[in-house]
Amino acid sequence: xxxxVVEDDFLVADAIRxxxxxxxxxxxxASDAEQAAAALAAEHFDLALLDIALPGADGLTFxxxxxxxxxxxxxxxxxxxxxxxxxxxxxxxxxxxxxxxPFEQTELAARCRxxxxxxxxxxxxxxxMGKLRxxxxxxxxxxxxxxxxxxxREWLIVxxxxxxxxxxxTKERLQQAVASWDQAIxxxxxxxxxxxxxAKLGDSVVLRAVRGLGYRLDEPR
Amino acid sequence: MSESAASSTSIRRRLLLFLLPPLTLFxxxxxxxxxxxxTIFVRAAYDQKLADIARAFATQIQQPEPKPLAAPAGILxxxxxxxxxxxxxxxxLPTAPAGASQLTYADATLDGHDLRLxxxxxxxxxxxxxxxxDSRPNPGRFILAxxxxxxxxxxxxxxxIVWIGVHFGLKPLLTVRRQxxxxxxxxxxPLDAASVPTEVRPLVDALNLLFxxxxxxxxxxxxxxxxxxxxxxxxxxxxxxxxxxxxREPAATPLQSRLASxxxxxxxxxxSANQLLALAQADRATSLTDGFRKTDLKAxxxxxxxxxxxxxxxxxxxxxAECSPASVDANSRLLDDLLGNLMDxxxxxxxxxxxxxxxxxxxxxxxxxxxxxxxxxIPESERPRVxxxxxxxxxxAAGGCGLGLxxxxxxxxxHDARLFIESGAEGRGTRIRVSFARGRTEIHVAx
Lengths: 221, 447
Prior knowledge:
The complex is a heterodimer. Chain A has two domains: 2-123, Rossmann fold (3-Layer(aba) Sandwich), CATH 3.40.50.2300; 126-218, Winged helix-like DNA-binding domain superfamily/Winged helix DNA-binding domain (Arc Repressor Mutant, subunit A). In chain A, 44% of the residues lie in helices and 24% in strands. Chain A is built from eight helices and twelve strands. In chain A, the strands form three sheets. Chain A has a five-stranded parallel β-sheet with strand order 2-1-3-4-5, with helices on both faces. Chain A has a four-stranded antiparallel β-sheet with strand order 6-7-8-9. In chain A, helix 6 (152-163) crosses helix 8. Chain A is elongated. The mean pLDDT of chain A is 89. Chain B folds into three domains: 13-140; 186-287; 288-447, 2-Layer Sandwich (Heat Shock Protein 90). Chain B contains nine helices and twelve strands. The longest helix of chain B is centred in the N-terminal third of the chain and has 51 residues, at 11-61. The two termini of chain B are 36 Å apart.
């Protein structure tokens, strides 16, 4: 998977490039909007990381230009300015995610994977997390290439967690997701279903319970 | 301001001191004029009585057979021939000097007594009738006393009315004073100039101008801090990122511990820059209560817990939440900062294996947010000090910049919330609760 990093600060760009390479991505760097446009025209990228404060045309202007040209490439904004107005503007312009500097390399890598996963889901109807492949359209889960047998409720739980992977899914939401399948279900019943799902997924992914809130599905680090 | 300085500049006192001398002078002049007028009339009446007696004597001595002459009690008389020879009465009694009229009046002294005398000159005799001044009843004194009393009461009542009038006149100033007294140091909203009288408006306008300048200065200062903190973020991001990458490189294995401490230092720097930024933003939001919206506290807890799950797992802590539905009128971003800082402290100071819980709900009618941990706790003696900016508990281990609770305090203050620092369950650890005043929404509607 190939990522374009548009960042003018050398140290930051270098750290991102090296970090993402270690996480298994191929990374190219551009230090301004011109270079970035040239790179995107020449090659295919799965994701662009875009700094806002660039010399010349700033990141948001570049993003607008990109979207106006019909480019659907997922874009994550990297910025030191975390004002709500900037964030809203960026998301309005068609940014897919927003990360404030300074950040952890692991978080950056996780978010990059999530964005690429989501964009693949749009094009292929499939999600890939570690050794798991979740075929949303075909309603089938594969673990390490092998199909996994799930009950209807278990599938709904896996789907709900996978579509929000990396984020906490509250127990209420899982309850609602399952309730549409079968009217009455208690929070305890949700727990039972989740523990069965956990057993079936094994250590291919990390399914973490957050006390009092819900569950979070992550790729293993 | 000392007591004496305060009273010498009191408007009430100055006004009274200014009014007292002229009013007293007017009163004295009034009393004097009244007294003089009264005595003139009384004297004229008594003189008339003496003249009547003198005329009666004159009629009697002109009778063909005069009866022996007798004067009423207290009246002296003498009758002399035109040549000056005494015919009857007191021979030593002086006569009033002759004048244009038959009747002339004079004051004289006899045997140490002040006398008022009238001399009536007829062809055959000169008749003088006198009365001891002391034997005359003196209504002038009574008139004087009653005048004094009435005027004195009038003066007092006037001064009292002035006193009360000044009190009512100054009431708008008192209201302005109360408005200012009720403010916190960071509250710089302009005062309401519409409700004060014209005379006080220039003062209120001047105060508002001052508030505006102070607001500007405060805003410029926090803007500067925010800009600086922002500027620091990119280089810090570069340093942190590079160190993280370096630590994962096989070639760096022998340097792991040195890189780790370097990384920790840069992390602290990064944290401090973020805290400064949060504090500057909290400061700046002082006058931005319009940015308040109905905020779901459960959502705040969920966001903050979500953001800290990974860190809790890394630290070996059991992080959880206990939420009851609750909402408050607030700036949700500032509430995220508030709870984030409480959470940050709990995660930082609770040893591995501990338990950290974020909660929200209602305590009676007060919505609240809180974080409880089972870490070392904050000694009771330190609790008041931990809210100070840059204060750190002596001997506390983990790297921190001492701004976390100051930020919490600042944000709580802006939301009219109270901060309670207590021990956790069974007296262990720390529980910090931010309790909001109820009904912020209702107040806004009433406004």
